[in-house]
Amino acid sequence: MQNIISFLTSVISFLIVIGICVIIHEGGHYLAAIWRNVQVHEFAFGMGPVLFSRRRKGTLWSVRALPIGGFVRMEGEEDEPRPGDEPDPTRAFTVKRPWERFIIIAGGALCNIILAWILMSFLLSGYGIIDSKTTVIGNIMEGYPAAVMGALPGDRVVSINGVDISEWSAIRETLQKIDTDDVSIVVMRDNSEVVLRGKVPVSDERGVRLWGVQPAKVRYPFFKAIFTGMGYCWQASVEILTGLWKMLAGRIAADVTGPVGIASMAGDAARQGFWTFITFLAVINLNLGLLNLLPLPALDGGRLVFLFGEMVFRRKFPEKWENRIHLVGFAMLLALIALVTWKDIVRLFTE
Question: What pTM was estimated for this model as a whole?
Answer without folding.
Answer: 0.82
